[in-house]
Amino acid sequence: MFVVSSYASRLSQTPLSRSSAVMDDINVEQQEPLPVDRDGRQWGTEEDQPDSGKKPGCCERFQQTVSKWMLPEDLRSKYLGRTNCCPPPIFIILISIGELAVFIYYAVWKPQKQWVTLDEGIWKSPLTYKPERRQEAWRFVSYMFVHAGVEHIVGNLLMQLLLGIPLELVHKGFEVGMVYLAGVLAGSLASSIFDPRSALVGASGGVYALIGGYFMNAIVNFREMIPLLGVFRILVIVIIVGTDFGFAFYRRFAASEEGLQVSFVAHFGGIVAGMTIGYVFFSAYNKKLLKDPRFWLCIVAYVIFVLFAVLFNIFLSPAP
Hints:
disordered N terminus; 12 helices; mainly alpha; globular
């Protein structure tokens, strides 16, 4: 009788019943949540988890570097948590290819065949902004594809690729494209007002818009950066802008070149557009622009400027 009862008690303590007893002693609410990715899927193994000690690859290291240069510290983790290289920075790459192709066309295949293209070839181009042809409205934007020489095209391409590709990886092509084109248009309109008798070539308006937007972010988020790195960024921007402005002034006032004089005012128009519209776009990472009052303020101011420039060119411009 004692044997039967002992055997029955052992049967009652099966693995299932013992595991149920253990589960009853565990407070589920106090346990750590299961590791999941950003789409809510559970990580399969320890190697799949982001904190498993796995060394980051080349793409991950590149994205970490981009986040340090383009974003304040409190936004880097959000960027790295959802970043990918798809879509790639299409806008800046396509714009750069287009500008290089137009330069090669005028430098190699046109009759003058010289690498300094600031000559009759580009003056007759349907892309160059010329004050006497300002009724052809596309010239206010298409001038960005025509450049005056090797140093002109190389400088613009280097700046917009080195700065534009990281910006587009973070903010994507729409934002970068809007800022770039806003700088191009602001540059030509500002030139038509403040230097109305000068022609215009080059993508400096768009390049300076990218520089202006990035510069304002570096200033505003200076305390969230490593101080030395923040100072380095600002000094590099100031040196590049100062050097380029110096060459622009020289080409406009000191260089004795035949033909029309090339305006420098597009640099000012581009950098102002960048420090306003560009700053709003580039500082609104992971935010809805339509709910940002700074966005609407900049848009309204830009529209007023465009309307004023259009009316000025129709009724008040001293250009022929």
